[in-house]
Design a protein that fits this description.
Distance between the termini: 36 Å
Pathway: Cofactor biosynthesis; NAD(+) biosynthesis; iminoaspartate from L-aspartate (oxidase route): step 1/1
Cofactor: FAD
Number of helices: 14
Number of strands: 23
Structural class: alpha/beta
Strand content: 15-25%
CATH topology of the largest domain: FAD/NAD(P)-binding domain
Largest sheet: 7 strands, mixed
Radius of gyration: 22 Å
Enzyme class: oxidoreductase
Number of domains: 2
EC number: 1.4.3.16
Shape: globular
InterPro entries: FAD-dep_OxRdtase_2_FAD-bd, FAD/NAD-bd_sf, Fum_R/Succ_DH_flav-like_C_sf, Fum_Rdtase/Succ_DH_flav-like_C, NadB, Succ_DH/fumarate_Rdtase_cat_sf
Length: about 550
């Protein structure tokens, strides 16, 4: 069993810092929640790197909200439910589609500059959306623009203190209540930060896989520490692989946005043949999981490591204007989108599951909230609809703050005792090697296509790494590895349990969706193991 805490400390010996609200993470979820909370609370934002390092920063497509006269919440709801493949939580989706536009207004008020045409928001369409409802910024740099605007707001706000380069090791709990967090400073010193509410906004776990569109920091820390603290972890078998990430020697796995296909790009195998008609009637705009698996099938058939995305038939001006970031990035590697086919392959992109949270973002651990990719509100079901992630973060960020404002402050004399293990030994093998090994196991056994035999073998191999939890951990990369190992085991176990194919979870030994048996969430708990939860009908 994974131990309750990653390190042995005597809490009474540590310096204590009191704040009203502790926000862990710095993407759109963390920044937006911190800014909203600061109206009535003193807020501490902790980020293990800097305010500009998060998955949000790399979000190109945009943010989905009902803005256009031709659109309606009912259409947005229907598109979300279809993509979610029967696992969406109906009430959560209702909130998303009705409150999304208000969230966009908030972002604009906070300084985000979305692209406009003729004085109105320029809306685009992405895969599996029935209407044009995606707001974007600087063409294809939406996430960066949102983070820029919100970071500036947070930094100039006297009620928000920002700690860069600090690592949250664990959540401190007592009798099912979260009292705050154990934090390590850049110099290695540890502190106990106490608060009436702790909000996890720590992002996803793309680093579980060797090839990912996520930054280095996406190591599932929030999900792992919440699991250790006794929170329920839901639906983590559903990992979305983005079908089209750049696959070129020397280049990182840079995202080639869904919107490129939305604007007419086609996919070709290395023989130059367009192939999506073999797999789905929506062709290149089929749901992501279908496109990603189709690409893998073509790669296997043609013995290649990539396919091409081709937008050369569109005007060069349109491509440069609509996708300036992608165009420029590819150009740095000698690839010109307007005249070259761009080599792409699937890469791990987004985690639909996470820390189970209610409609106010609160977990089963009192005073502990989760927002954004690390949470599981039920909005995304088994497969996220493109551009719903940024909307989810602002809709639930706002609700979390409303709930926090109802909480009583923590009594000042709150103390808690942490059990000491006294059996930690220095870690021997370099963490870098362990991490690479873990990523290879996940790609091989718990990737785009899975089966029971492989998942069982993968889980066995992961369990061999468990001694890390009895080692003395002191460095950020050691904590990150322990968190990745926790998430890897949770994902593999949930995938092994779900004997069907649904959304982003595909089992070759159970290729069909089975609503009779499996229309339920898989929920994991540190002490109770795997629990399943039926879904009230949608």
């Amino acid at each position: 069993m994974i131990p309750r805490y990653l390190v042995d400390v005597v809490l009474e010996d540590l310096p204590v810092i009191d704040k009203d609200v502790i926000v862990i993470g710095a993407g759109i979820a963390g920044l937006f929640t911190a800014i909203k909370a600061s109206k009535t609370n003193e807020v501490l934002m902790i980020t293990k790197k800097s305010l500009l390092d998060s998955n949000t920063r790399y979000a190109q497509g945009g943010i989905a909200a009902v803005i256009s006269e031709d659109d309606s919440p009912a259409y947005h709801r229907q598109d979300t439910l279809i993509a979610g493949a029967g696992l969406c939580a109906d009430e959560a989706v209702e909130l998303l589609v009705h409150e999304g536009p208000k969230g966009v207004d908030d972002l604009v008020r906070m300084g985000t500059q979305f692209d406009q045409e003729n004085g109105e928001f320029a809306l685009t369409k992405e895969g599996a959306h029935s209407q044009r409802r995606i707001l974007h910024a600087n063409g294809d740099a939406t996430g960066f623009e949102i983070v820029r605007a919100l970071s500036e707001k947070a930094v100039e706000n006297s009620r928000i203190e920002v700690w860069d380069d600090h690592f949250v090791i664990d959540l401190i709990t007592d009798n099912g209540k979260c009292l705050g967090a154990l934090v390590q400073k850049p110099d290695g010193q540890r502190l106990f930060v106490r608060g009436k509410a702790t909000v996890l906004c720590s992002g996803g776990a793309g680093q579980l896989y060797r090839y990912t569109t996520n930054p280095e920091v996406a190591t599932g820390d929030g999900i792992a520490m919440a699991y250790r603290a006794g929170a329920y972890i839901q639906d983590v078998e559903f990992i979305q692989f983005h079908p089209t990430s750049l696959c070129y020697p020397g280049a990182p796995r840079f995202l080639i946005s869904e919107a490129v296909r939305g604007e007419g790009a086609v996919l070709r195998n290395i023989k130059g043949e367009r192939f999506m008609e073999k797999y789905h009637e929506q062709l290149e705009l089929a749901p992501r999981d279908i496109v990603a698996r189709a690409i893998v099938s073509e790669m296997e058939e043609t013995k290649s490591t990539f396919v091409y995305i081709d937008i050369t038939h569109e005007s060069a001006d349109m491509v440069k204007h609509r996708f300036p970031t992608i165009y420029e990035f590819c150009l740095n590697y000698g690839l010109d989108m307007t005249s070259d086919w761009i080599p792409v392959a699937p890469a791990a992109h987004y985690m639909m599951g996470g820390v189970k949270a209610d409609l106010n973002g609160e977990t089963n651990v009192a005073r502990l909230f989760a927002c954004g990719e690390c949470s599981s509100t039920g909005v995304h079901g088994a497969n996220r609809l493109a551009s719903n992630s940024l909307s989810e973060a602002i809709v639930f960020g706002r609700r979390i703050v409303e709930r926090i404002n109802q909480l009583e402050p923590l009594p000042k004399d709150t103390t808690v005792h942490m059990d000491s293990l006294d059996r930690r030994e220095p870690s021997i093998q370099a963490v870098v090697e362990k991490r690479l090994k873990l990523q290879k196991i996940m790609v091989r056994y718990a990737g785009l296509r899975r089966d029971g035999k492989g998942l069982g073998k993968g889980l066995e191999e992961l369990k061999r790494q468990l001694p890390i939890f009895h080692s003395e951990l002191t460095k950020r990369e050691e904590y990150e590895f322990a968190n990745l190992l926790t998430c890897a085991m949770l994902t593999t176990e949930a995938a092994l349990t779900r004997e069907e194919s649904r959304g982003a979870h595909y089992r070759e030994d159970f290729p069909d969706r089975d609503d009779l048996v499996w229309r339920k969430h898989s929920v994991l708990h540190r002490e109770h193991g795997v629990i399943e939860e039926r879904i009230n009908d949608v």
